[in-house]
Design a protein that fits this description.
Number of helices: 8
Helix content: 25-40%
Number of strands: 13
Largest sheet: 7 strands, mixed
Order of helices and strands: EEEEEHEHHEEEHHHHEEHEE
Shape: globular
Structural class: alpha+beta
Oligomer: single chain
Mean pLDDT: 95
Bound molecules: ligand DP6
Low-confidence stretches: none
Distance between the termini: 13 Å
Length: 325
């Protein structure tokens, strides 16, 4: 059978940075994210007895460095479905993979939903999230709707994501300033491995659960400034750990720092906008809807930004009817 799914990328507001089980991708702490409406991946999967090997095409190319990881993920699904057929997989993202915009999250979420349906499995959202997590940790958060919490858990069955609030809960904008170039980037998997040597990791582990509690309280009260302060502190902590890892990992480019200063200056001038940054140079600016246009116009002044993508909170991964082949 053939099935197609669409899944959003997500941006972590409380970060996942470290695994306690590499094989199962069990994180050292819970995390929280929001799905992004304009960064999506569509994937079609078909299992077919006549295929001699898995044929995987990503954004029109067949020699992707992710191919091995995708085949491993197909194997997980084949095992669950008692299926031995090879698969054809075609995947298309609406953003350049080279930009370093969490393509593994939307990619593995769409692959999980499409392949499990194509394999005849009728999995619950929780089971899909558990499965997606094993492909790429952050992918488990692209399965549920809107604002999502990934529970740390102490086993594969207890480490999954669920929707904290639907996408319609809070009409904020997430403006992505794209500076990235994935080719030069240290992958999250490698970055997390190196982070084990950071003396700051132990401190983070002590306070991250408190931050998750604070996050939920702030969301309930819809306190935008408190939310902004918290997500900036989280972003700085992730990068402080990266800078103090086994080899210092500097994810930022000059423009990253330029945008950090611009956001802070604008805030001093009365524009309430805040930022977060993942394991790359791109800056994600959050603003209330009425301030989006001004924030966008200010960002446009910075040379070196390759693209600006405005997102709203979005639904999670789901099946769609139109196939890619
Ligand atoms: C900085 O999910 O890409 O974006 O599980 O090794 O595939 P793997 O890592 P990945 O890591 C994402 C790290 C992050 C923060 C986050 O999304 O929480």
């Amino acid at each position: 059978m053939k099935a197609t799914a669409i899944a959003p990328a997500n941006i972590a507001l409380i970060k996942y940075w470290g695994k306690k089980d590499e094989q199962l991708r069990l994180p050292i702490n819970g995390s929280i994210s929001v799905n992004l409406s304009n960064l999506q991946t569509i994937t079609t999967v078909e299992f077919y007895p006549d295929y001699q090997a898995d044929i995987i095409t990503i954004d029109g190319k067949q020699d992707d460095k992710e191919t091995e990881r995708i085949i491993q993920h197909l194997n997980r699904i084949r095992t669950l479905a008692n299926l031995y057929h090879k698969a054809k997989v075609v995947s298309q993202s609406n953003f350049p993979k080279a930009a370093g915009l969490a393509s593994s999250a939307s990619g593995f979420a769409a692959l999980t939903v499409a392949a499990s349906k194509a394999g005849g499995l009728g999995l619950s959202e929780k089971k899909l999230s558990i499965l997606a997590r094993q492909g790429s940790g952050s992918a488990c958060r692209s399965i549920p709707d809107g604002f999502v919490e990934w529970l740390e858990g102490d086993s594969s069955e207890t480490s999954y994501a669920y929707s904290l609030f639907p996408y319609s809960y809070w009409d904020i904008a997430i403006i992505v300033a794209v500076l990235g170039d994935e080719q030069k980037k240290v992958s999250s998997t490698k970055g997390m491995e190196a982070a084990k040597a950071s003396p700051l990791l132990a401190t983070r582990r002590k306070r991250v659960n408190y931050r998750i509690k604070m996050f939920k309280k702030i969301m309930k009260e819809r306190d935008f400034d408190e939310l902004g302060e918290l997500i900036e502190a989280e972003a700085f902590e992730l990068h402080a750990i990266a800078l103090t890892s086994a080899e210092a990992i500097v994810y930022w480019k000059p423009e990253t720092i330029e945008i950090i200063h611009l956001v802070r200056e604008l805030r001093n001038e009365g524009l309430p906008i805040y930022f977060t940054i993942d394991a790359g140079p791109n800056v994600y600016i959050i603003s209330e809807k009425e301030n989006t246009k001004r924030a966008y116009n200010e960002l446009k002044q910075i040379k070196g930004i390759r693209k600006i993508i405005i997102n709203a909170p979005a639904a999670g991964a789901r099946l769609i009817k139109e196939h890619l082949f």
